[in-house]
Amino acid sequence: MQPEHFDVVVIGAGPGGYVAAIRAAQLGLSTACVDAWVDARGNPSPGGTCLNAGCIPSKALLDSSHHYHNLRHLLPAHGIDAKEITFDLARMQARKNKVVDTLTRGVKGLLRKNRVESITGLATLSQGKRIEVALHGGKGHRILEGKNVILATGSVPIHIEVAPVDGERIVDSEGALAFSTVPERLGIIGAGVIGLELGSVWSRLGSKVTIFESLPDFLPAADRKIASQALQSLTRQGLDIRLGSRVKRARAHSQGVSVDFDDHGGASALEFDRLIVAVGRRANTEGLDPAAAGVLLDEQGRIRTDADCRTDAEGIWAIGDATSGPMLAHKASDEGVAVVERIAGGVGHIDHRLVPWVIYTHPEIAWIGSSEADLTEAGVDFRSGSFPFLANGRALAAGETTGMVRMLSDAATDRILGVHILAANASELIAEASVAMAFDASAEDIARTVHAHPTLAEALHEAALACDNRTIHL
Ligand code: FAD
Ligand code: AMP
């Protein structure tokens, strides 16, 4: 069979791959994008983990469960009483599925509109930049050849031997987004981003949630003051977060799941109705056969690349979760754009130091740049300014006073080095810090920027003023 030639062949249509493919087509490159994901009805479903089983369905359920929780717990303080607040999980799940469906159909439309050749099937590398695609539904094979090939094969949940996922009693994040009943007692292994978000969803809907975390510290990558306030807040909401607790064995039986774990007190055991394994994700290269094309993996099984996303094989690039760096959708997309712009002869660029992190608990946790611990370790002299939402007018009006903004700036130049936020909508507030840092702003620049009143963003303004010990409202 003769190969079909393209300027760019992208493998994977997650936020890394589909964005890369669209940008390549915009730049006039003939582009094919191969993706293996199909939905429950067997239809192609581009968008990868993010749209199908990650960012989007988790946020849909977080929003639905947040409304329910607020109706029950927040409205009385506003003088609003509602009687008989109930929810219908089937409808909540159907809404989530519709959101996913709308977005995956949107991606299909965007690929079509940009004249990207979308192919559903499993791609395997062979010699050079040749790719064999086993078409979905047993419809045969296609052979593609790209002048450039972009690997965007994403990641899959890590499964651990001590807690074998059976898809019923013991599930991973994908299973936990699809529960059709609310488990009464829910165990979660891992207090990382996914464990905390899924724990929040099911706790708000009525599960008694216990989260086992082997590390002694809560969210070690986050600012210490923010992590400690977040832990307090999540504990108040009913999440039983057990730090320093290592699960030794989980066993599903007809009544539920028995979990044996070690903590400060020695060996203990607890019973749950269901258990979520949320111990992280690993790069996915299943079925890809990277070695056939001379693409090497690192010691953690991720596709090895240089700082510009080049693999060890000439003309083959790798982006997103499949390679090193944070496993975040926007990191994948921005790497995709940068790679394609390099291929097209431009100056593709992504500043890996400025990738924002968000955890969509309530309040949300977001940060960008360095933490106090990073700067101390690097011996950087810095100043810090904090402002609590308790002293922010809009937060008081909304009844959302938990949290703070912390800004770190260079002691000599005042350049902002890191911003850390715990707030009702930290995911949106962090964008101001991203822009400021991308333009090398100083804390003084933010302090001299007019912020609308009353807004939560004023806390950023005040934290910037605090770097110079001159907050107004504290
Ligand atoms: P993926 O999205 O994993 O896409 C890879 C695609 O490649 C898949 O469709 C796969 O089927 C396909 N593929 C793999 N191998 C082949 C092959 N050989 N041939 C053909 N196709 C192949 N990130 C955020 O930034 N914000 C969030 O709020 C967030 N929430 C999350 C919540 C959950 C529950 C989970 C699990 C993840 C979340 N993430 C979030 C992480 C985010 O989903 C990933 O970082 C992102 O999807 C990575 O994009 P990607 O394009 O690298 O890979
Ligand atoms: P993340 O990688 O952010 O999704 O977080 C996963 C978390 O799971 C990490 O903080 C790990 O320390 C934790 N973890 C991994 N294995 C276990 C285990 N057997 N028991 C408890 N926690 C675990």
Short description:
The protein is an alpha/beta fold and 474 residues long. The chain has 13 helices and 21 strands. Helix 3 crosses helix 6.
Overall description:
The protein has 474 residues and is an alpha/beta fold. The protein has three domains: 226 residues, 3-Layer(bba) Sandwich (FAD/NAD(P)-binding domain); 110 residues, 3-Layer(bba) Sandwich (FAD/NAD(P)-binding domain), CATH 3.50.50.60; 104 residues, Enolase-like, domain 1. It is built from 13 helices and 21 strands. A five-stranded mixed beta barrel has the order 1-2-3-4-5. Helix 1 links the parallel strand 1 and strand 2. Helix 1 runs parallel beside helix 8, helix 3 runs antiparallel to helix 4 and helix 3 packs across helix 6. The longest helix has 25 residues. It starts with a strand and ends in an 8-residue tail after the last helix. The mean pLDDT is 97. The protein binds flavin-adenine dinucleotide and adenosine monophosphate. Adenosine monophosphate (AMP) binds next to helix 6, strand 9 and strand 11. Flavin-adenine dinucleotide binds next to strand 2, helix 2, helix 3, strand 3 and helix 8.
